[in-house]
Amino acid sequence: MEFPKELKYTKEHEWIKVNGDVATIGITEFAQSELGDIVFVEIETVGEVLNTHDVFGTVEAVKTVSDLFLPVGGEIIEKNPELDTNPQLVNTDPYGNGWMIKVKMNNNDDIKNLLSSDEYAQIAG
Amino acid sequence: MTDTQSLKHVPLNDLHIAIGGKMVPFAGFNMPVQYSGLIPEHHAVRNNVGIFDVSHMGEFKLKGEGALDLIQRVTSNDASALFDGKIQYSCMPNDTGGIVDDLLVYRNSKDEYYLVVNAGNIDKDWNWLCKHNTANVQMQNLSDKISLFAIQGPNAIKVIQKLTDINLSEIEYYSFKIGTLAGKSDIIISNTGYTGAGGFEIYMNNEDAEYLWNKIMEAGKEYQIIPCGLGARDTLRLEKGFCLYGHDIDDNTSPIEAGLGWITKFTKEFTNSNYHKSIKENKPSKKLVGFKMIDRGIPRQFYNITDGKGNKIGEVTSGTQSPSLNIAIGMGYVKSENSKEGAEIFIEIRGKELKAQVVKIPFL
C-alpha cells in the first residue's frame, strides 16, 4: 500500500498536504480500502471555522458510514466539488482527485502533531 | 465479538484469506465480507454468476414419526404441504410475540426433515427445538459438519450443470435433489438462495468443501465466476426485500408485522399462534415497509423514521445504497397509518430529517 512521503498523516487515517497556511485533506489508501465502495461524501462545513478533531463531514460506503475528523484547526475554505457526482474518486485516487477539503490553518503548529509516512505505515500496516 | 480468537472458522477460512477475502466477525464466525469489492460482486451475481461460502449457517436433521408434528408445532408455515424434495421458508415464533429465527424446512422423506437456520441462532434454535421435542424425534445438529456454498446468478445453472448428471432444469424453485457433484456423492443441490438472482445452494460434508469449491471455480471460469462476500449478499437480499434476522425480524417482531403473513398459516396451531392471529384480525399497529430516499442520504439500522416534524413514527431495520438501482433504499417499521405505498416519510440522518417514500417490496 502506498503512503506518499510528502504527505502527513493521522491515526484516523487522513492525509494532509501542507502548502503555506493551507492544508489539503483526504483519506488514505488504507482508509478507502477498509471502507470499501464509497457512494456518498457529505461535507457541509465549508465556511466554518473548526477545531482540531472536530467532525468536518461523513463518508458513506455501501455498508458503513464513517465520520471525518479535522486533523488541523482552521476555516474550511473549499471542498472537492467532483465528489458530489463522483464519490468513488476517493477509492480510485485517494491522494489525488479524491481529495476532500482545503483548510486555512489558524495554527501552523498543528502540523507538528501529525505523523510522517513511515510512522503512519506502522499503524496502517 | 471483535476478539478474533474466539471466532469460529469455516473449513475454507484459509482459502478465503489466500484469495483476498477481507475477513470480518459475523454471527460468531470469521467470514469474508468481500473479495474484489462489494459492487463488482453484487453485479456479478445479478448479471452473471458468483459463489458465496455460507458454511456458517446451521443445519439440523430431524428424523422419526413425530418429526412433522414437531415442525408443525414450532414453525408458522404449514409443513404438511411439503412433499419429498420440497423446501419451505418458515419461521419459529417464540412465546412472547416475536420470532426465534427464520429458517428453511427441507423434506427428504415422510419422516426425515432438514432445518437450515441462521448462524447466530444455532444454539438458541437447537435449545428451543429440544425443549419442544416431547415425542422423542431423533435430532442431530450437523452445523459443524456441513459446508454450504451458494452459487447465485443467471449463469449459476450452467456452471453447476457441468459437474452433475442431475438435470438441474428439473429442480424447481424451492426444491432439491440429493446426488453426485464432481464425483462426490450425497450432495444436496437446492434451488434456493438469498439473492433473488437465481441459482443453487450446495450442501456437502466439510471434507469435500475445498475440492468442490475448486471444481466449481474451475467450471465457472468460462462464465467469469467470482467469489462473493457477505457485503454483496446483504445488498442483493435487501434489493429483493428479504428479511434478515437481527435486522428486519427478531425476538420482538411478529411475522404478521414483518409482512410474513404468507408463511404464517392459521389452519394449524403453533407456538403463540393465537397471539399472531389476533394481530392479523385486529390489523397490526406497525408494519415493515420498504422505502427509497428522495433526499440524499443513506439509511442505516436504528435510524429514526419521522413524520418530518420531529415526531418519531418508526425505525430503520436495514438500509444501503442499492448497487443495481443506484438509489438509497431501506426497510423499517412504521405505524400502520404511515405504511401505504407512496406515503412520505422522513429518515433522521445525522440530526436532519431527510425525505423518503414508502415503496413496494421487492425494490427490484
Question: What is shown here, in short?
Answer:
The complex is a heterodimer of chains A (125) and B (364). Chain A is an alpha+beta fold. Chain A contains four helices and nine strands.
Report on the structure:
The complex is a heterodimer of chains A (125) and B (364). Chain A has a single domain (8-107), classed as Beta Barrel (OB fold (Dihydrolipoamide Acetyltransferase, E2P)). Helices cover 18% and strands 35% of the residues of chain A. Chain A contains four helices and nine strands; from the N terminus they run E-E-E-H-E-E-E-E-E-H-H-E-H. Chain A has helices at residues 29-35, 82-85, 89-92, 117-124; strands at residues 8-9, 14-19, 22-27, 38-42, 49-50, 55-61, 65-69, 74-79, 101-105. Chain A is globular. Chain B has 364 residues and is α+β, with helices and mostly antiparallel strands. Chain B folds into three domains: 4-55 and 145-239, Gyrase A, domain 2 (2-Layer Sandwich), CATH 3.30.1360; 58-141, Alpha-Beta Plaits, CATH 3.30.70; 285-359, Elongation Factor Tu (Ef-tu), domain 3 (Beta Barrel). Chain B is 20% helix and 34% strand. Chain B has a six-stranded mixed β-sheet, sandwiched between helices. Chain B has a six-stranded antiparallel β-barrel with strand order 15-18-17-16-19-20. Chain B is globular, with a radius of gyration of 21 Å. The two termini of chain B are 33 Å apart. The model of chain B has no long low-confidence stretch (mean pLDDT 97). At the A-B interface, strand 4 of A face helix 7 of B.
